[in-house]
Amino acid sequence: MAPTKSPDSSRRSDRSRRAIYDAALALVGEVGYPRTTVEGIAARAGVGKQTIYRWWPSKAAVLMEAFLDLADRAAEEAAAQPGGVARGLPDTGDLAADLKLVLRATVDELNDPVLDGPTRALTAEGIVDAKLGAEFIGKLLDPQLALYVTRLRAAQEAGQLRADADPRIALELLIGPLFHRWLLRTLPLTHAYADEVVDYALGGLGVSR
């Protein structure tokens, strides 16, 4: 008789984690963060709630990890598309074109209904939960902002930005308006708007002629 192969526990754990991620994101999108519970996530994922508590201390931790995983997958899928933006900001030598490409991709992410609910939930909860807010910034926002800083410093070295410009403030001029418009939902968030933001920001940051 052929030996019986024992189940692969690591693969089973990966499937369970993926089911929990998907359940958490789906529930937050459907009923909002306050009404999402560990019990609801467990039922949706087809696992026991003790499985969730074995891996995460709270629903906030579940959602954080699920969202980070979703963001990673979205970035990989975007990079795989023709003309997609890979991790890191492009550096073609044309700063305006590079920034417009990245901000357009950001607009697409913010307008994605799959990402919208979880992003708003984490943003809102991070305001009242300082620990969650710090984790959200440290794990998600800061790594992305660092990519802008790197690209803007390269532009400074190439003489495309004022040498005394603070890259951190400069990036806030670029991404701040997008998040402001996304947060308030009063005006459409479009590629054309992203292009104008770049033009306005660089108009104030460019080297004087």
TrEMBL record:
Residues 14-74 form the HTH tetR-type domain. Keywords: DNA-binding, Transcription, Transcription regulation. Gene3D superfamilies: Homeodomain-like (1.10.10.60), Tetracycline Repressor, domain 2 (1.10.357.10). The keyword Nucleotidyltransferase does not apply. InterPro entries: Homeodomain-like_sf, HTH-type_TetR-like_transc_reg, HTH_TetR, Tet_transcr_reg_TetR-rel_C_sf, TetR_C. Pfam families: TetR_C_11, TetR_N. This is TetR/AcrR family transcriptional regulator. Residues 37-56 bind DNA.
